[in-house]
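[agent] plan:
  1. take the single chain provided in the ticket
  2. run structure prediction with default settings
  3. attach structure tokens to the ticket
  4. add a short note for the reviewer (M.T.)
[agent] executing step 1
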Amino acid sequence: MADLPHALPAGVLDALRIHREQRTAAVRRVIEQTTPEDDPEQARKALSVDLRAAVIRGEVDAGGLADVLAEYVARDRDGA
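[agent] step 2 finished; step 3 output follows
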């Protein structure tokens, strides 16, 4: 792997943080807008369809989805 610079140019970390926040916010919006179902299997299917549509429209990217899913997995593992 190539050596990374010891310091990034000013503002790069802030830009990366803002980009991450924007992409995870997009995923959270889709999750919140998905109509909750009484049946967990139906809820999973509805969320899957909504997230897939958001990816196709370019509103959600794989990185944001991975970040949010990692948060849910960690929360579930910790029992929260």
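[agent] step 4 note for reviewer: The CA atoms of residues 23 and 44 lie 21 Å apart.
[agent] ticket updated
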